[in-house]
Amino acid sequence: MDNEIQLISDGDGLAVIGNATDVERFLVSEGLSSRDLGLQRLKTVFDTGAALAQAGSEISANSGRWVKLTPKSALLVKKYGLRESSKTGLSTGIVKGHKGQIRGFVEFAKAPRSLLTNPAILANAGRIMAQVAMQQTMDEITDYLAVIDKKVDDVLRAQKDAVLARMIGVGFVIEEAMTIREKRSRVDEVTWSKVQTAPATIAETQAYALRQLDAVADEMESKTKIGDLAATAKEAEDRVREWLAVLARCFQLQDAIAVLELDRVLDVSPEQLNGHRLGLKAARADRLEHILRSTERLVARMNVAAGTANARVLLHPTKSPAVVQASNHVATGVHDFHGRLGLESGSRSPEARRWVDAAAEARDKALETGAKGVDVAKSLGIETLDRASLVKGKLSGGIAERARRRRGDERERDEEG
Fold it and tell me: Is the pTM higher than 0.85?
């Protein structure tokens, strides 16, 4: 088929494969941004045998782009009626047209020349898509750590805990393995042996960071006096920021390990590649769920603190807005953190999407509440001054009136005498 474009979705991203010009026209027509899929990585897997050589030549003739699934791009899966395979977990299909004009949908079963009728190629395409998606998140986290102006290594070095110190070393080893992978396009036994124990260290550090966030939530819950609440909320801003950075680094390293692991499985047990990819995806979702639960509890405690502060703003017109402002900063920081982990993606579970929506709503409400709290504090301050002036005026008037009465009484007594 001429001008055909092959589409694959794994729930996190969409692969668009075909002639480079056709792929570009298709992406432009749909208004989608993309990054290179790295389709050439497939060719290295199929370099022997006549059939495999043919697959390799077809791969070379095609271009591949990867699109992160968002609510907008996820609609393409429905728009073009991609069919999901219960075996691979991938949704696939082909669209074709002339000079970028898409005419209709063709199933893979009716397109025997498709690269993706080859189970091995399809499994490897799923691997590459997973790796590109994780690399995208890793890049997002790198940007996040730069934006918050506090590199995680600086945070870690300031700590005395052996758990965090070990993660610094693990990070160096993983980065070295990723560099070797880029140079060799595979992960051999020597490279894998360097990093295969890293997941335990990273998981330990992640658990430690989550406990620190839980501790912040507990402290916020335990404070009842506004003065104590204001001091704790202010301290929580910096602590939460730092521990979110540690969690981000953990997640980044875990994704890097998964990228290496998929290449290693391809090397030693290619028949298990698809199942392993699905297992890694499930494990990643579990990690996200742990993070969501902990940060959700933290934001909830900060919102309660903001509500308490607003309720007492009359008695504490300066400290109450400080609590609200700190709560706003924490809620916004958590929301941004989740965005960098990809939780805004339409590919996430309904539970995760509900939390992201709730976090955004909580942030907006907190910002609105905070603004109201500050306005209330200002208005109360002005009202207090107005009342004070009024009272002062009444007191002054009363004193003057009483003085006049006394003077009048004294004159009357003098005249009688």
Answer: no
